[in-house]
Design goal:
447 residues, alpha+beta, Pdz3 Domain, 2-enoyl-CoA Hydratase, Chain A, domain 1, 3 domains, seven-stranded mixed beta sheet, six-stranded antiparallel beta sheet, 24% strand, disordered N terminus
Length: 447
């Protein structure tokens, strides 16, 4: 019993120090106000609960696992993007931002307490096996995913190259679940792809923002310039985002040096601004493609180019993730992924839950035999942050011009990656717009 009391006292003392309290000779509570006393009481309750569970639970428990579980539960109460990362998961995150990891190749989220696939990454085991956006992952290796955290799900699906994992999928329209056994592979994500379409139109697709994206973009622009392109399409559809600095660097070639790309504000209200950097400038007429899968950093770029009048944004309303996550390492090698700020476009628009409204709304036309997938946006996620900017406080958003006469269910979507270039309605509209742009530019001025 003495050993348990000693452990309790040590834990409680550590909790007090970590919470900002000082232990003095005069006693623990000499200089705390009413609010701090209440905080002290909650910590005491937590420490008591931990001690009782450790001593009296029907089976022996691991104290470290209990504390880790408590921390995860605490962060799960905040918003969908805050989480606790064990040392292994934190290492995986660091690998992920470098653009290479070993796993299945899917982007996931939690919707209605169910693990849901946002999109498979092209040319990965999940993509090749036919996993689709909107699929619900019911089990991983026969273990139910109910109430699982995103980080735990990622940890279960990643692993050594060549090892296998079975995910049980429920798809809308299916009567029963189906097992997909996938072999993990090294997912080397080339974040920038490029080509020339219609002879003179450059096409850039950015799949996500990572450490190598800026260099890959610069290389792609150099190659496209050698092809004597006259205009450019920047495709960020289904781009889930990534590094904030990466978004600033991607916007830089398309805007003048020193122009505001985005600013962020945390709880204190202090504003931190991010400006374009010195780089090779390109001045081609531009169309930016976005859809409901365009999130975070891709929304920053689209919003900056739209606010600057630098490009026409075409597609559908974006995902609406307007929050900044800061990774805070802890002493044991673990880390917190904590939402610390909201971000805003140069004209002061908050993208949180609202997303970017395209200048020209074009919904993806779908073939009759195509299978559609439900749309998931930030506003659909449990405990999402609210948009804190009232409409009257920002400049008027661009007028929406819906050119799509055919009515399509906006709650379903066909992924652009599943379409040929000819069947990609949004891409073809962008091509037509740039062709028209050139025609009007070359028209003689009336005398």
């Amino acid at each position: 019993m003495f050993r348990h009391k000693k452990a309790f006292i040590l834990f409680f003392a550590a909790a007090l120090v970590l919470s900002g309290y000082l232990i003095s000779k005069e006693g623990l509570l000499d200089r705390v106000d009413a609010e701090e006393r209440e905080h002290y009481s909650k910590l005491k309750t937590f420490a008591e609960t931990l001690s009782i569970v450790k001593q009296n639970y029907v089976e022996e428990v691991d104290e470290k696992e209990l504390v880790t579980g408590a921390i995860k539960g605490m962060l799960n109460q905040l918003d969908p993007h805050s989480s606790f990362m064990t040392p292994d998961i934190y290492k995986e995150l660091q690998i992920d931002t470098k653009g290479e990891f070993s796993g299945l190749g899917i982007q996931i989220s939690i919707k209605d307490k169910m693990l849901t696939i946002i999109a498979p990454i092209e040319d990965t085991p999940a993509f090749k096996a036919g996993v689709k956006a909107g699929d619900r992952i019911i089990k991983i290796d026969n273990e139910a995913t109910k109430d699982i955290t995103l980080q735990d799900a990622v940890n279960k699906m990643r692993g050594p190259k060549g090892s296998s994992v079975t995910i049980t999928i429920l798809r809308e329209g299916w009567d029963k679940t189906k097992d997909f056994t996938l072999v993990r592979d090294v997912i080397q994500i080339k974040s920038v792809k490029h080509k020339v379409i219609d002879e003179k139109i450059g096409y850039l697709k950015i799949t996500q923002f990572q450490q190598k994206t800026t260099q890959e973009l610069e290389d792609a622009l150099t190659k496209l310039k050698k092809e004597d392109i006259t205009s450019l399409i920047l495709d960020m559809r289904n781009n889930p985002g990534g590094l904030l600095n990466g978004a600033v660097e991607v916007a830089s070639p398309f805007m003048q040096e020193g122009k505001l790309v985005v600013y962020i504000k945390g709880r204190s209200g202090d504003k931190q601004e991010f400006f374009t950097i010195r780089t090779k400038q390109v001045d081609y007429p531009m169309v930016v493609l976005v859809n409901e899968g365009s999130a975070s950093a891709s929304e920053i770029v689209a919003g900056a180019l739209q606010d600057a009048g630098r490009a026409v944004v075409l597609g559908t309303q974006t995902f609406g993730k307007g929050s900044v996550q800061t990774v805070i390492p802890l002493s044991d090698g673990s880390a917190l992924r904590l939402t610390t700020a909201r971000y805003y476009t140069p004209k002061g628009r908050s993208i949180q839950t609202t997303g970017i409204t395209p200048d020209i709304v074009v919904k993806q036309k779908m073939k009759e035999e195509a299978k559609t997938h439900p749309v998931i946006r930030e506003k659909d996620l449990k405990q999402h942050l609210k948009n804190d900017v009232a409409k009257e406080d920002v400049e008027k958003a661009p007028e929406v011009k819906d050119q799509d006469e055919e009515k399509i269910d906006i709650e379903t979507v066909e992924s652009p990656s599943e379409l040929t270039e000819e069947d990609d309605t949004q891409l073809q509209r962008a091509v037509d717009l740039l062709k028209t742009w050139k025609v009007f530019k070359d028209l003689p001025v009336a005398g």
